[in-house]
Amino acid sequence: MKFLFLIAFIHVLPQCTGKPLGRDDCHQQPSEEIKREIAGYSDIAKAIINLAVYGKAQNRSYERLARFVDTTGPRLSGSKNLELAIKYMFNALLEDRLENVNLEPVKVPHWERGEESAVMLAPRNHSVAILGLGSSVATPPEGITAEVLVVTSFDDLHKRAQDAKGKIVVYNQPFVSYEETVKYRLQGAVEAGKVGAVASLIRSITSFSIYSPHTGWQAYQSDVPKIPTACISIEDAEMMARISSRGTKIVVTLKMGAKTYPDSVSFNTVAEIVGSKYPEQVVLVSGHLDSWDVGQGAMDDGGGAFISWEALSLIKDLGLRPKRTLRLVLWTAEEQGGVGGEQYYQLHKGNISNFDIVMESDVGTFMPTGLGFTGSCKAHAILKEVMQLLQPINVTDIYENGSETDTGYWLKDGVPGASLHDDDSKYFWFHHTQGDTMTVQDPSQMNLCAAIWTVVSYVIADMEEMLPRK
């Protein structure tokens, strides 16, 4: 992926702590006719909630997800595990008797981390836990042994540029928020390379750690030397900062066997419930099927993918068929910058006028608090009425920003977008780590998330008119 493309995606990342939008934010009210139309879905909404939360489908999305991640494991772009996972889901969607189940080919990056290690040799011997960052180059087979320069920011690095040449730069930047701090993961190697560093080690992008490094994607610039780069734990970053502040020399040996292969063929996985009246019009629900190569990818983004599948299953189980087509897309290679989402957009953007709303869940499936939304004030007013159907589970708020990595292209072109908003206070504790496993997931919370996702997508798909874009 190009560097600027990745940086652009920072601006469409979910806003994790936004406030609910109130009536003062959009001075629009739906017509009484639309209010009555939406209120008429009350019984259907209750039936969906009862089935998902209390009925035969209770815990189904959780159990499906557990079976899936226990079978396939982590699912890195270009890997055999991801290929297995896509085949697994294709067959599962067919067995669920969904319609138009198909695979859309996507060219995706193929990077493997290989063996990797870091050892602090001075002032004492200490094994440093690392996770190489996606697209990183390897070290020589014997590794890189160099003195460490600890910095707290890019400004600090540039002020000390003369000291950085030939050293391993360790970033010990404070965590402000994911949106603000992730730039060190994305750009850390480039900025260190500019000043002649031989490698970079970056404090993991999280507020909390139990000695757990976090991986993620990064990108080089063609005019800057490529240096090996990895994330380290908060604990080791802070330890090296303390040692350095005392004027003590730190020496580290870094070994990374990372390798980038030619792009490989993967697939976005698609299934539908075809609309009864306006089949050409689409309400899209989605999550990404790929993950990093650590943990199980249960939280990021197994949960989002599986509540999206659950939405179609619940509607089918209730014998419902909305007026518009409800389309499930399980994206590939989201972690490499939304590769599957971008190629899907390029393939289908000619039909953009028929996309009613695009929805993606990709910030966990914890206790839900509402929906993030991007769209016109008229569309917001309609969605606000739809959310009132969720009063039985007390989740009715709408928050700023419904964009996610895979759906952001559509929102930039004016298509309304929604994302699941939940209590993500612990999301970045596990994000891109070995800790992203089924242990993080809670079946009762997934039930609630599935109910919200299903009620909203069904009602929008079944209303007589599409959501207004102006």
Q: How would you describe the oligomerization state of the chains in this entry? A: single chain
Q: How many helix segments?
A: 16
Spatial strand sequence of the major β-sheet:
1-10-12-11-13-16-14-15
Described by the principal axes of the CA atoms, the overall outline is: elongated
Record keyword descriptors for this entry.
16 strands, 8-stranded mixed β-sheet, 470 residues, 35% helix, alpha/beta, single chain, elongated, 16 helices
Model description:
The chain has helices at residues 3-10, 32-39, 42-54, 60-72, 80-95, 154-159, 161-164, 178-181, 183-194, 234-245, 298-317, 339-348, 377-387, 408-412, 427-430, 443-462; strands at residues 99-112, 116-122, 126-128, 130-132, 144-151, 168-171, 199-203, 229-232, 251-256, 259-273, 278-288, 324-331, 355-360, 368-374, 397-400, 417-422. Helices cover 35% and strands 24% of the residues. By secondary structure, the protein is an alpha/beta fold.
